[in-house]
Every structure is written in C-alpha cells, then in structure tokens.
Design brief:
- By secondary structure, this protein is an all-beta fold.
- It is built from no helices and 14 strands.
- The chain has a 12-stranded antiparallel β-sheet, with no helix packed on it. The chain has a two-stranded antiparallel sheet with strand order 8-9.
Length: 216
C-alpha cells in the first residue's frame, strides 16, 4: 500500500485516483494471478485510463474467485490537479466502486445467493520537483453492509486508509514507505524499493512487518 505514492499510471484507478492526472497518454493494464497459493483461486483485472475532462478518467474491472464463490468489482475514476507552483503540484481524485459477491449452490446453503454494494475511494497525491511524492487514500467511504440473508447478520465492507511516500534519488532508483489501516484496529507499515535496468526490466522488493516479498 506504499504504492499509493507511486501509482502515476493507469493503476491509479485502483490504487490512488488522485494520481491519475499525471497520466500523459492512454494506457491499458491487464493482470492474471493465483493469489494466496490457493490452486483453484484466480484473480484477474483490466484497467484503462486516458486524459479527459480537464484531468484524467479511468475504468476497471477486477474479479477474484473460483467455481464456488466470486467477488467482482467495477471501478470508475476521475482525477485532476488542484494546486501547482514552482515546487510541485497537488492532485485529488475519486473512484466509484460497485462490488458483487456471488455464491453458487452447495457452498453457503441450498440456493444461490448474491449481494451487490457500492462505495467510493477518495485519493490525494502530491509531487515535488525534487523527487519526492506522497499519496493518501480513504477507502470504502460509506462502509456498506454485506448481508446474504435478511436477518442473518451483516459484514461491513470495511473502511480503511493508505498513506505512502516515495523518493526517486536517481532516474532508475526509488525507495518508498507507507502505512495502511486494514480495518478496525489493524494497522501495518510497509517499506520497499525498486531499481530499473536499461528501461528494460526492474527489480523490486518490499517488507510488510516481518514478511518479505520481491520480484522482477
């Protein structure tokens, strides 16, 4: 979640809509992965973004699930600058999110169940001319309740917040740090770095508490 200070491309639709205005050409991003090491669980997404309406707009779709349960999210974003001077620029943005969870028969009961909720993310982004960037996002504004069966009790789509800072001290080298609230009373710190080689590939590594991850 430190990436909220780096998402200056189409990924801003999901990570930080406040940074979308830094997009300078149309972009499309696709991803497919198997998260959490679960063999039959698949995560897929597509995001598009371009400059429009005095800023930048973007749209995206994300699905995670298997043959028995799936969560789909549809996203629509807008961001633009609100402040500029010789030291840097400030930007704000918002993402409208619609989420739907579907449960197939035999998993949660004898019949098919589905629930749809709507929420929003609010993002802010600041970039200096000295290589520093900072981003903040308030997620799931409104904290809608998810309830499959009336009267059975609901689960909130929990509100959270992310904050990140990053510093690029050379064109190919960046370090970042961030804080995220994963829900009620669950806070975590993150740190990471990236080095690019010849504009061809990059090596990235990071820490979430004691957990390490990396890739290229």
């Amino acid at each position: 979640e430190a990436y909220v200070a780096l998402a200056t491309d189409a990924a801003g639709v999901a990570w930080n809509p406040g940074a979308l205005d830094l997009l300078w050409r149309p972009e499309v991003q696709l991803s497919v992965s198997r998260p959490y090491f679960v063999p039959d669980l698949l995560s897929s997404s597509v995001v598009i973004a371009r400059r429009a309406l005095g800023g930048a707009v973007g749209a995206g779709w994300h699905r995670i699930g298997n043959d028995f349960i799936a969560e789909n999210q549809w996203l629509l974003s807008y961001g633009r600058w609100v402040y500029r001077d010789d030291r840097g620029s400030g930007h704000l943005g918002a993402t409208l999110k619609v989420g739907r969870i579907d449960v197939e028969p035999g998993t949660a009961g004898p019949s098919y169940a589905a629930v749809t909720v709507a929420s929003a993310d609010l993002g802010a982004f600041y970039r200096t001319n000295a290589g520093w960037t900072a981003g903040a996002v308030l997620r799931n504004v409104g904290e809608p309740e998810i309830e499959f069966v009336d009267g059975s009790g609901s689960t909130p789509w929990e509100r959270g917040a992310d904050f990140g800072v990053a510093y690029r001290w050379r064109p190919e080298s960046t370090v970042s740090a961030g804080w995220t609230s994963l829900g009620r009373n669950r806070d975590a710190w993150r740190a990471g770095g990236e080095i690019r080689f010849y504009d061809v590939f990059a090596v990235r590594a990071g820490m979430l508490g004691p957990e390490f991850s990396g890739g290229f």
